[in-house]
Amino acid sequence: ALTLSKGQTYTLKAFVDPENTSDPITWASTDAESVSVTNAGLVTVKKYTDKPVTIYASSNGKKASCVITLTNPLSSVTLSETAKTLFDSHGFQLSAAAVGADESAPCSENVTFTFSSINPTIAAVSDTGYVTARTKGKTSIIVNAKSETNQITAVCEVTVNELVEITNLVL
Fold this sequence. Notes:
The chain is mainly β. 0% of the residues lie in helices and 51% in strands.
């Protein structure tokens, strides 16, 4: 059994008995679109699938197999906002999503997100990503994504403007 991710390769070796046999070995994949195998046993992961893929080697009626489990490890983070301008006392929900190495499929790892503000006196952020503007200025909201294999940081730049209320209106 092997665990691989998109872009990785591994060469499987078939051991035959007797060693001096001239019978050819045929290689096959149960999902060649996701994981290919050459006549030399070179396995290449082309794309992520959440189902295990089996590689078979066969010769003269004999068959051996290797199950490959694919992972799509955390490679980046996307934010709902990368820059936001607010008035003081206003807020917004900042959300984060984990992106796997194969961007066409969901990240297969458990990812935890933590949110923090460089300057919470300008804009504070809750544990769930709700940003509250407090006073005029600029700050950064830092989103840290952590998985079993990786840790990535993303940033949302926040500008807080002073809310000026109308004191008089004449027609």
